[in-house]
UniProtKB/TrEMBL annotation:
Pfam families: Thioesterase. One of its GO terms (biological process) is lipid biosynthetic process. Belongs to the thioesterase family. It comes from Leucothrix arctica. This is Putative thioesterase. Residues 23-248 form the Thioesterase domain. InterPro entries: AB_hydrolase_fold, TEII, Thioesterase.
Amino acid sequence: MSEAKISSPWFTNYGLPINKSVRIFAFPFSGAGPVVYQRWAKQLEQQGIELLGVQLPGRESRYKEKLIIDLKDLIQELATEIQLLPDKECVFFGHSLGALIAFELCRELRRRGAPTPKHLVLSAFRSPSMPNPNAELHNLDDKTLIQRMREYGGTPEAILSNPEFMAIFIPVLRADFKLFETYQYTQEPPLNCPITMLCGQDDRIVKPEYIVGWKDQSTLPVKTILFSGGHFFLEPHKQDVLRLLKDICQQHNLR
C-alpha cells in the first residue's frame, strides 16, 4: 500500500507515492532545503524510483526550529531518524555540504550496525581528509558574506538584494557554513560501497584536484565525473545527473 507522506519531519517525499522498492536520499547544499530536489523527485517517481529530500531544522517547513551548528549532533539525529524508516535499499546523493552530511551519515550508520546505502553519489565537496582550503565564511559580516555569495554564484541577485529575505537567509547560511568549516575528519576504515564523485570543471570553491583523496574512502571503486560549469553545475546538467542516478539504481538491481 502506498502512503500519503513520510511521518518524520526530517524527510519529505513531496506528496508522491512511496511504495517504490528503491529510495534515494537527497541532501541539499548550504542554505537550501529539500525544495531544490522537488522536480527531481517527480521525474524519478515516473521511473519507479523514490526520492526523499532531507529536511534540516531551521528551513522550509521547519523554519521555527533551532538551527544545528555542530555536525556531530546533526549526524546523530539524522541517523536515529533514518533508522525509524521502513528498510529499503537506498542510495545517498548530496551536493556540497550535503555530500559531507551523506558521507558522515553513512559512517555513523555503519558504526551502529545499521543498513548502509548501496552507493554514495557525492557532488562538489573536497576529500574529507583534506583541510578546508577556503577562507571561513561563517564569521564574515553580513555585507561581506553577501558579496562572497554573489561572487560564488548560484544564488539569484533578486534574493541577495532583498534585505527582508536575507535577514532570514543569512542565519541559515552561517549555520551551514559553520557545519563544514569546523568539520574535523577522523580516520576510520574505508566504506564498503562504491562512490561516484561529481565536480564542476571550473569550480573555484571545490577544484577538481580537491576531490582526488576520495579514492581512499572506499574499498570499492571510486569514480569521478567532471561537468562543465562551476560549483552550481547541477541545474544545467540536471538530466545527466538524473540519468546517472537511474543507472546506478539499475546497476545495483535496486529496481
